[in-house]
Amino acid sequence: MGALIDGSSDNEDQEATEEEHQMKQQLAQLSEDLEVEDYTMIAESSTNEDDLTDNTDGLVDENELLNTDERKDLQNTIWPVQLALVKLCKLGYKIIHSTTKILPTWHDILCELKMTPSILPCDVSTWWNSTFDMLQYALKHQDAIDAVTQHRDLGLRAFEMTDNEWRIVEQLCNVLKVRFVHVCLFTANVVCK
Known about the structure:
Elements: H1 2-6, H2 10-31, H3 34-45, H4 68-97, H5 102-112, H6 130-140, H7 142-149, H8 163-186
Helix pairs in contact: 2-4, 4-8, 5-7, 6-8
């Protein structure tokens, strides 16, 4: 009956469910130690001890307001976005913290592509604009990111981005750019790029 309503067969539904399961498993594996890496990036760049603790006063977890089905639907919708973000976050962290192997290769790739040697900005939860900065940089350096993740000897194949993930990065960057521009317009302390 389900095949008549939504136009898909049970076999197609099973394949989609299997693909979802594999992607969720990949997201779980890649997300390991993400909080530790986030904390490390904050600690390495900050001399202010207040930066090391999150201010959660007045924070509302919107997920708690959803019923179980709504929460499940939301998670199924956002997991591809989470996977793309996690891949870029982990790749940036790996590049920065592998100064003897990955970082020199990254710089070599950038030079081959006639780009200025630079580092993928990390997405850090307490830096208001770091997600946008990371996504914008990734889009400008897509060829370099694709090249470095294809080097088998670097062990970065898990961070290889699919075409769909690049589309997600582009869409998310466009959404965050609108926010960035609005903040720049209303905040005298922020310099717009």
